[in-house]
Sequence to fold (615 residues):
Amino acid sequence: MINYSELCSLFEKIESIQSRNEMSDELAAFLKKCNSEEVEIISYMIQGRVAPMFVKSEFNYSEKSLINLLKQYTSEDIAAKRRSSGDIGDTIFEIWKEYTEKGKSLKVKEIYEVLWEIVNTSGNGSVSRKNKTILNCLKKLNPLESKYFVRTVCGDLRLGLSVRSLLDVFSISKVGDKSLKEELERAYGVCSDIGYVGKKVFEADYEGIGDSLSMITTIPGNPILSRLVQRVASFDELKERFKEEVLLQPKFDGLRCQIHKWKGEPISQKEYNSIWREYIKDGEEQSQDLFKKDSSSVHVKLFTRNLEDVTEMFPEIVDSAREMNMDSFVMDSEIVGWDYKKNTFLSYQETMQRRRKYSVESMKGDIPVRAFAFDLLYLKGESLIKRNTKKRVEFLEELLHDTQSHTQRGIVLAESKVFSEKEDIKGYFNKCVQEGLEGIIVKQLEGEYCPGDRNYEWVKIKKSIDENLVDTIDMVVVGYFKGSGRRASFGLGAILGAIRNEEEDTFDAICKIGTGMRDKQLEEMNSKLSEIAVERQPKDVRVYDILKPDIWVSSKYVITVDADEITKNISKNDIQIGEGLSLRFPRLVEFGRDKGIEDITTVQELVDMYEMRKQ
Fold:
């Protein structure tokens, strides 16, 4: 059994390593010493969690609460030390040797159980009960263990290891290289549970790994990673890429949403024995109805592309799914605000106001929504992701054939058209734009639904196609600048945006964004970003010295940016960060986009966009 102290020593070592390959090798070597259950637990803990993203299992405990707790226990000025160190973990590490009670080291699983106890503490007086649990645990931990324990509970572990990094680690640990990458990505794509994938890999012997991974399949209640789309620069390029008939669907400007419905317990869930199921409290909100065994009960769950459970935010979508005459399905859809009086779309900004946990009923009346279903991934106990796109859409049309009325609320069928001629495609594009849509999605008729993948079988044409960038760019904020003049009063004058470098597994900072921000937005961004400020440049972030910000932050908030053009820097640097590309006159379109940091624009995508415009 692995001690928590061993895991924390590994974390400390990983923090000191700059090379991504070295980090992977260290973690792979460590996991070889673990049993499959420990691999599962550690996979969640490396992400700062106790369960997959789609399970509501947040600690809901802040640094402020921890500082207030320790004020009562020690004579140290915890707040001042925190300000000085820049990190709550380093603060505890510095002071805790005087307060720890000597004893045997706790096992990794024992810490996991304590973390679940914190997660499951809710209701009146929950903070004081969490305080008691946390303090009792801290007394048993040495300074290094305490450092990573409080970082975990306060939501900022700072290891910089992504899910993709972990998949590589699983492969290296079992076969010595990354040759299992494709099989691992497929398995994770259909279940979105990194711990479960790790467990299945380490349960299997060398010869049986492929079979073990192939058994991981679609299960209602487990979101499938959303398939992504590529860009093209023109209708001429579209014609070059698609020689045959294509499927056209509207491109909505809303919230990507997977709709899951099932009755009782799906057969495949009996084999899905992930450890976190043991700790979910029956009857509590956290249970999510995911694994109740009442054969008569009907369950509906809604998940965003970021694997967030938003079921409670859209009751009309849930009601619509429940009323449908089908016991089990998984649909891919886009939730969009809808004006029933004018029979037209509401703006994206209005739609996003529905993403709230409180006052849902009043917002439901003020901003009604519809879920436009455009793909079907599971039906009546069978996964459809290996079926051709054309066949999946036919199944969907059969299921939703009576939901195209303008008065239909909840789930409706998105329009699908099949064309081959360029002029017909362009005509449909113009029609969609005139109706207030973003453009169209063009899909190859043949081909599977590839979870989390992005290729030229699905492409988008947006109304910005005739503009300089072809499309907007999604970035992650990795730092901010304090600003000068009037903006100095807001504490923030500009932000530093980065794109994802898949080859290096880094975030490459390419531009400073200081326009497109209102005063109120500057205040809100400063408030949110200051909470995730870090003392040093994160090791998974690369940036030229000229762009280094005043304050570094953890990679959390995704933004959408527009610009006049993509430019190529003439640089003598040995390392070409972001392939030497930057944005000319970048403007903030949206802060806090509903995307995971792994779904932001990649370096290769930006290179493609640059080449498109050159041509």
Notes: The first strand starts at residue 228 and ends at 231.
